[in-house]
Amino acid sequence: MIKRTDKFYQIILIFFFSIWILIPFLNNNLNFYSEPQISKTENRNLTKRPEFNIQLLDPYPAAFTDFFNDHIVFRNLMLKEHSNLSYYLFKHSPVPDQVDIGKDGWLYFGNNDKLIYQGQKCLSGDEIRNIAKELHRRAVYYKQKGIHFYFCFAPMKQEIYPEFLPNNYSRSPGGTQTDKIISVIKKDPVIPFIDIKSALLESKKYGKMYQKTDHHWSCKAGFYVYSAIMNRIKIDFPELKPLKASDITYNQVLRNGGTLANMIGFDEILKEDYYFPVIKNAPGRAVKKAGYPPPYWFAYKDEYENEYEIPDKTMPSLFVIRDSFFYYPMLFLQQNFSRTTLIWDAWMYGPNLELIDKEKPKIVLIMVYEQNVGSLLKYHIY
Amino acid sequence: MLFSSLLFLYLFLPTTLFFYYFANDKLKSITLLLASLLFYAWGNPSFLSILIISILINYFTGLLIGSLEKKKQRKSALVLGIILNLALLVVFKYSYFLIDNINLLSGVFGAAPIIIKKVILPLGISFFTFKGISYLITVYRRETTAQRNFIDLSIYISLFPQLIAGPISRYRDLEPQLRNRLHSLEKFSSGIKRFVLGLAKKILIATPLSYVVSQIFSLPNEHLSAAQAWIGIIFYALQIYYDFSGYTDMAIGLGRMLGFDFVENFNFPYSSRSFREFWRRWHISLTTWFRDYLFLPIAYKTSRKLPKEKYLGLRTDKLIYIVSISITFLLCGFWHGAAWTFVVWGMIHGLMLVLEHIGLGKLLKNIYKPLQHVYFIFFILISWVFFRSDTFSQAFDYLTIMFGFGTQQFSWSLLSDYITTGTIITFIIAILGSTRFFDNLIRGINGLRNSPTTFIKISFLHIENFGTLVFIISILALSTIYMAGETVNPFIYFKF
């Protein structure tokens, strides 16, 4: 009887195991469960089935494995459960190469940010000098056209909130590549550099400067960034009337977590307060876009260009080459310039000479997220 | 391809099992060989040629050895075969290391360095090379005849469950199974259980332990306290055990599903009370390989060259042991990796074995058993520091900190990054699982099978079998979730 019972359960186990490992195959044929072809959490299209080419075998297994992994049935459900287990049970990032879990629920962008902060990724001395030379050339070129040029970095969250980083995470003792670039360009009087990092460190006492669950800064930080920029530009354009802190009130909204929470699949769980400004007597209005063509591969085509104007045409015009960090400062800056043109050129931070020739601004400002500064090496404007 | 991957579990395995079980006996072998070659090629199609070269070397050398009558000629053929096998290993595993060291040495004399491209290590090369050598020695010793069937020998060398991380089955153990294997429901279901348990050991225990290990080992020395250093190395000792033994369990389980019976490779190694005991319980197939093909031949050769009683004031038998074990463990360390840290790891083990042989063993036997255990655990942890470290300086710095010479003071907040509910649960399960705790528990419960009361007996049978079923499917599901989690590849901005 023992043998019979054992045999019965052996058959049951084999049956369940066989069904279990056949689920993906069965789903492929019966299609009882389907998931979208775009992974929202991962911000990417799922991998397409690679073509088999007998002449080019080496890359095929990895490409097919990626395809298979991306299309396995219940993938999104499993990723969510994996995130839950990693985050809650082990305080471990479900994507350790991409997102680091800091103290008190602070999340940090891993990847290049981490490597740069720890000094493991650093531009060479030649590259640093070439970046400084490119900025110098741009400043001279714009000056010849009667344009004032300003340059600044958007600092990484690690630089402003190192106190919440995990214990095994320390800043490069010899300084980061950004420190080295700043020390070179500060010596060049032609490049007016605006120190955003110092402004944010100084402003930490007034509120949270970065969102806990996002790699971007907060709206309040956006105002202090705006102030730092305006303080510098006002030296050359005294007619400007910057907004004061008292001109702004904030609406507090509890929203889904930011970019980093999304990457670990927790955007709906790690909710966070966001502050949106209400500006007293805000004259800035969005105007019709000029219709400049964005790079074909840029995912955020609607964001490529933005234009704002105020009624006071005696104020100078501003042209900004920006990235996603400029979203909040832009809300304030558009209130001060006769025309504000913002170009998000897919993190290339190019000279955009053609657009500048068309817009004829009085001021050009470039803000570069510090991990992307290497993009400037691609250019040599003359 | 790795066993602990979605592709293996949900495509390769069902496809292989399907074709294997629907093939007739003649085609079963071909199915198995094709599956094994595909499994290997998946890691890097170019490396398939290395595996095929290894098979060809051993097939033809085996035939040559088998065809020769004179021992001297057979020996020459064997030496040739071993040299060819080792040449593959040296070229692909050790060439960069060797050139690097030659350059270091020649640099002292101002010579120009030799520049070679870093060679990518083909998966499992150490394992299939040793299997090939085992085959040749077996044929040379006339323990078996040379394999004339090319497919059978190819299966022995390339059998996919053993290909990447062993166990290193000996040819004479596997030869009868190459032709005739027992396939049964019992064997298949026990194979499933063993495979899933191995998968869980790897994915659900070793991986979470590795989170803590990698965090601690990546700390700068000035931020590493002695307590953290000890936690790091204890977790690493468990991680490496669960990783490796989990992989072996999966191999044994897969073997059973295909009708094979592989040798056991681990037997609760951390329950040892000496290094001698440890090597009878840890990576058993490698230990016996080294014992039979290296240690014993060296000991035999040395004994013939030394006087019977004493040499240089030492008893000859002890001297033979010292020489043989030193060479064996030097090469054992080297086998584990092409770096001096592995060599030192091997030498520590060799030294401990020598010390135990010449007197420490006797001394230990007379002390309280838990203290014997403390002795063993202490030294094995020290040796793992070298195994885990990339360089000597990292190993020495780590050891210095372990013994309280670091600058970072202990504080609970430093542990807060990794001492979580999940870590504690995993650690407790890992510790208990490395002893006979669960084994004894299951054996105790199984006693109810022999209950004189029929009702209890029947109830127990159902509860036990049903519980096992639920447990196996649950940990399989959980492991799948973790495997899926490893495939996530997010971008901060949308990427086409």
Distance between the termini of chain B: 27 Å
Number of strands of chain A: 13
Global mean pLDDT of chain B = 88
Number of domains of chain B: 2
The major β-sheet of chain A equals: 7 strands, mixed
Query: In percent terms, what proportion of residues of chain A is strand?
Result: 15-25%
Largest sheet of chain B, order of strands side by side?
1-2
Number of separate domains of chain A? 3
Content-based structural category of chain B: mainly alpha
SSE sequence of chain B, one letter per element: HHHHHHHHHHHHEEHHHHHHHH
- In DSSP terms (H or I, runs of 4 or more residues), the helix count of chain A works out at 12
- Oligomeric form of this entry? heterodimer
Largest sheet, spatial ordering of strands of chain A: 6-5-13-11-12-10-9
Mean pLDDT figure of chain A:
90
- Runs of chain A in which pLDDT lies below 50 for 5 or more consecutive residues are none
**Outline of chain B, from the CA principal axes?**
globular
Provide a concise account of the structure shown.
The complex is a heterodimer of chains A (about 375) and B (about 500). Chain A is α/β, with parallel strands linked by helices.
Task: Describe the model.
The complex is a heterodimer of chains A (382) and B (496). Chain A is of the alpha/beta class. Chain A folds into three domains: 32 residues; 39 residues, no CATH class; 278 residues, no CATH class. Helices cover 37% and strands 15% of the residues of chain A. Chain A has a seven-stranded mixed beta sheet with strand order 6-5-13-11-12-10-9, with helices on both faces. A two-stranded antiparallel sheet of chain A has the order 1-2. The longest helix of chain A has 29 residues. Chain A is elongated and about 95 Å long. The mean pLDDT of chain A is 90. Chain B is mostly helical and 496 residues long. Chain B folds into two domains: 175 residues, no CATH class; 227 residues, no CATH class. Chain B has a two-stranded antiparallel sheet. In chain B, helix 9 packs across helix 18, helix 10 crosses helix 15 and helix 12 crosses helix 13. The mean pLDDT of chain B is 88. The chains are: A alpha/beta (382), B mainly alpha (496). At the A-B interface, helix 1, strand 2, helix 2, helix 3 and helix 10 of A face helix 1, helix 2, helix 9, helix 18 and helix 20 of B.
